[in-house]
Amino acid sequence: MSSLFGLGRPQPSSAEKISAIEAEMKMMTEMHARLAKICKAKCVPTDYREAELNKGESVCLDRCAAKFFSVHMSVSEQMQKEGAARGGSMF
């Protein structure tokens, strides 16, 4: 029963936990920046005519973001499967 709660293995220190959270935040920030750059280039023209996005631009951005996250999840799942097949989880 103790192994269910991680009592049988050493727990990470506070510094390790903070480092892991910082790495995750950095990864999420970079992913958001890539998403914004890719979808803006695809969906928003460089010659701004209006202050607000029009309906076509908004729909394009929504679809682009959905596809981006779908691909991201597929790649993450595949990497986890490959890591598990090698004998250890990557994440």
Automatic annotation (TrEMBL):
Gene3D superfamilies: Mitochondrial import inner membrane translocase subunit tim13 like domains. It comes from Sporothrix eucalyptigena. Keywords: Chaperone, Disulfide bond, Membrane, Metal-binding, Mitochondrion, Mitochondrion inner membrane, Protein transport, Translocation, Transport, Zinc. Signal peptide: none annotated. Residues 20-81 form the Tim10-like domain. InterPro entries: Tim10-like, Tim10-like_dom_sf. Mitochondrial intermembrane chaperone that participates in the import and insertion of some multi-pass transmembrane proteins into the mitochondrial inner membrane. Also required for the transfer of beta-barrel precursors from the TOM complex to the sorting and assembly machinery (SAM complex) of the outer membrane. Acts as a chaperone-like protein that protects the hydrophobic precursors from aggregation and guide them through the mitochondrial intermembrane space. Belongs to the small Tim family. It is found in: Mitochondrion inner membrane. It is a peripheral membrane protein. This is Mitochondrial import inner membrane translocase subunit. The twin CX3C motif contains 4 conserved Cys residues that form 2 disulfide bonds in the mitochondrial intermembrane space. Heterohexamer. The gene is TIM10. It holds the Pfam family zf-Tim10_DDP. It comes from the Eukaryota. The keyword Acyltransferase does not apply.
